[in-house]
Amino acid sequence: MIPLVKVAMPPRELLMPALEDVLYGGMLAEGEHVYRFESEFSKTFHLPLALATSSGTGALHIALLLAGTCPGDEVITTSMTAEPTNTVIMQCGATPVFADVDPETGNLDPGSVESLLSTRTRAIVVVHYAGFPADLTALRRIADQNGISLIEDAAHSLGARYADQGIGTIGDYAIFSLQAIKHMTTVDGGILTMRDASKATQARKLRWFGMAKGIPRTEVDIEYIGFKYNMSNVSAVIGLAQLESIGPLISRHIDNGRFFDKAIGAIPGLDINRIDPECQPSYWLYTVLSDNSQDIERCMAEIGVSASKLHRPNHYHTVFAPMRRPMQGVDTYYRRLTHIPCGWWVTDEDRERIVNALRKG
Ligand SMILES: Cc1ncc(COP(=O)(O)O)c(C=O)c1O
């Protein structure tokens, strides 16, 4: 079976010596390896800075707090995402306000976002779903005009670009997930980046109980509560090894994605995500849209390819029931979508086979 998602591990001969060094080196927790990983990550993806965390969820929690999210605030967000996007908003004591999505992309519809602004809106969280950048021009404008923060949840979209800028550089804050099945992994981990580097000190404290590193534990003072969201040297060593081949790996996702755009886009009865001119996706998953999504799953299963919907729109969960509102765009997109694999493990032959099977129906 060709899986929908797959763990990408660097070659054993590259990773194991480095891993062994750190495991037996006596410095397992946050240290030099983490700081080197942060520096290499920000260089690789042209980010103003990168703070490594224990998860994308932790990074997003910190981003919301840096944006000033307090109990009673509202955060405009999408339901078409993995659950952590919205559970962290509630962890801040704020209310997720679900805006509708564009049924042709699955990404936030700026018009819907604008219609939901209130005096309590603190931030907009935008997800670049499945690796497709959302309309950052419109969302940036809305955030600026209303004095609120734009937070990019780029968990799916490492290496994507928007208007020729790296994803994660247009929002005030952005996060990446380095969880097992993403473009790259540190087993679990995340990255937080931000436009205003003066907030980095606060961010570092928030990821470590509220304490500054480098000050003797007997002298350090906690002024506000932080969390245990730091990354370990062990994860960082895996991340450093991953970065050595991340360019070609993401390029292969993109090459497969563009192949499918052309080939699947030409099959009658099937649609592909609309790709706006500014949008350069990194195709974490490939999304096929059709009125018979179950037939696509069946057709793929027949040729040994795993295909499915991956996430449940978050407002279907009981915990988000009080925030439910009619969202035709989400309903349509979710009903029509099927994800098929398009990552580095999909060969030229695999992708031809997938397209031929879809053509036959
Ligand atoms: C859209 C989205 N946001 C946030 C997260 C949270 O990332 P992590 O699993 O690294 O905590 C995920 C993870 O799966 C995700 O898919």
The gist of it:
With 361 residues, this protein is an alpha/beta fold.
Topology (SSEs and partners):
Layout: H1 12-23, H2 32-44, E1 51-53, H3 56-66, E2 74-78, H4 84-91, E3 95-99, H5 110-115, E4 121-127, H6 136-146, E5 149-153, E6 161-162, E7 165-166, E8 173-177, E9 190-194, H7 200-206, H8 233-243, H9 246-265, E10 271-272, E11 279-280, E12 286-289, H10 293-302, H11 328-336, E13 337-340, H12 348-360
Parallel strand pairs: 2-3, 2-4, 4-5, 5-8
Antiparallel strand pairs: 1-9, 6-7, 6-11, 8-9, 10-12, 12-13
Describe this structure in words.
- It is a single chain.
- The chain is an alpha/beta fold.
- It folds into 2 domains: 12-243, Type I PLP-dependent aspartate aminotransferase-like (Major domain) (Aspartate Aminotransferase, domain 2), CATH 3.40.640; 246-360, Aspartate Aminotransferase, domain 1 (Alpha-Beta Complex), CATH 3.90.1150.10.
- Helices cover 36% and strands 14% of the residues.
- It has 12 helices and 13 strands.
- The protein has helices at residues 12-23, 32-44, 56-66, 84-91, 110-115, 136-146, 200-206, 233-243, 246-265, 293-302, 328-336, 348-360, and strands spanning 51-53, 74-78, 95-99, 121-127, 149-153, 161-162, 165-166, 173-177, 190-194, 271-272, 279-280, 286-289, 337-340.
- A 7-stranded mixed β-sheet has the order 1-9-8-5-4-2-3. Strands 7-6-11 form a 3-stranded antiparallel β-sheet, with no helix packed on it.
- Helix 6 links the parallel strand 4 and strand 5 (149-153).
- The chain starts with 11 loop residues before the first helix and ends with a helix.
- The mean pLDDT is 97.
- Pyridoxal-5'-phosphate binds next to helix 3 and helix 4.
